[in-house]
Amino acid sequence: MDPLAKLFGSSARVKLLRLFLFNEEEWFTPSEAAFRAKAGKAAARKEVLSLFTNKVLRKKSGKGGTLYSANPKFVHYESLRTFLRTSTGVDDASISQTLKKAGTLRLIALSGLFTGVPESKIDLLIVGDKLDERALATIIHGLEAELGRELRYASFTTEDFRYRIGVYDRLVRDVLDYPHRLVLDRIGM
User: For an engineered disulfide with 30, which of 45, 66, 131, 134 has Cβ 3.0 to 4.6 Å away?
Assistant: First the structure.
């Protein structure tokens, strides 16, 4: 079991905390939160109510039912956000290992959220051959649940990526010309 899950009582609570605290301007129903955090609906509902009771979340009534959002007036709000941001269990090796399930990878570049530059166009650049887009989307959704944020990503075939490099494609240049980390490089960047 994840050490943070032991500390906070459950992995669902950790994922929901990350979801709400890293998306502080957004409002979610318990069902939406469960989907985004990849947690069971019953567990998510229980945890959301517990977080609301402890004033970590605030609520309002909306068209789709009761909506919840992070409560910036919570006493330990910034401390909790900082702690959760710095204690993520997602590292470069686990990202590479997880993405390998989507096909033959040639390049994985991390930018944006992973480098602390949120203005970047994308967070994850994936280059590979025989990539299964459906499997890739599922893997990305799993990473989003662990990180608590929606990831912006782009995937290309090796041939398409080389073409884009050759024509100075803006999206590719935005990743490679600014702070980024190469997790995997079999192209020779």
Answer: 45
Q: At what angle do helices 41-53 and 11-22 cross, to 10 degrees?
A: 60
pTM of the shown model = 0.73
- Return phi, psi of residue 139, to 5°: -65, -45
Question: Could you tell me whether strands 104-110 and 181-185 are parallel, antiparallel, or unpaired per DSSP bridges?
Answer: antiparallel
Please write the tens of the pLDDT for every residue from 58-112: 999 877 789 999 999 999 998 888 888 777 667 888 888 999 999 999 999 998 8
Q: What is the dihedral of CA 55, 5, 137, 107, to 10 degrees?
A: 120
Model confidence over 2-16: pLDDT tens digits?
Answer: 676 677 788 889 889
Instruction: Map out the domains of the chain with their CATH numbers.
Output: 3-86 (1.10.10.10), 92-185 (3.30.460)
